[in-house]
């Protein structure tokens, strides 16, 4: 059990019989007739719906520990996403609502941790950032090389704003939550 005042992003707890993940939580001290409160945004791991909660700091919630198993992404059929355990070759599926915005970052044969609760898959533990190749980018404008951005298309079809020095074939790191450019990934070149 965890008190509402101890909620932190990423924690998973049971609310009304369903698993919820904390997206954000903040404590607000009360004044006058208003008591203090904890405001939390939580995501239902089954349906993907996001709710705003107002809790008393002393409210107790049943915290849940999820197991993580690395699985290989296979394909999607419009209703669900399918993953395979590389050790046992057992396949599991997660509903499309559970994957949500992460869909555009999944690639065939990609290995990704799947969160399990009592042996049942509930969500994926996507990394904070992913590396993608640039498939098209207009040439840079030299006089604005440091202060302006241009639009580049990535291998997954996403269009993102990148600095002027990014060109086709470069690999860039993209923040998953926001879909924004983070940095160019430099590959070490070794001379024989």
Automatic annotation (TrEMBL):
Q: Where is the Translation elongation factor P/YeiP central domain?
A: 68-122
Domain Elongation factor P C-terminal per the UniProt entry, residue ranges: 130-184
Q: Please give the SUPFAM superfamilies that the UniProt record associates with this protein.
A: Nucleic acid-binding proteins, Translation proteins SH3-like domain
| GO terms of molecular function | translation elongation factor activity
Q: What does UniProt give as GO cellular component? A: cytosol
| Coiled coil (UniProt feature) | none
Q: Which InterPro entries match?
A: Elong-fact-P_C, NA-bd_OB-fold, Rib_uL2_dom2, Transl_elong_fac_P/YeiP, Transl_elong_KOW-like, Transl_elong_P/YeiP_cen, Transl_elong_P/YeiP_CS, Translation_prot_SH3-like_sf
Gene3D superfamilies according to UniProt: 2.30.30.30, Nucleic acid-binding proteins (2.40.50.140)
Is Protein biosynthesis one of the keywords? yes
Family membership: Belongs to the elongation factor P family.
Name of the featured protein: Elongation factor P
Organism, scientific name = Paraburkholderia caffeinitolerans
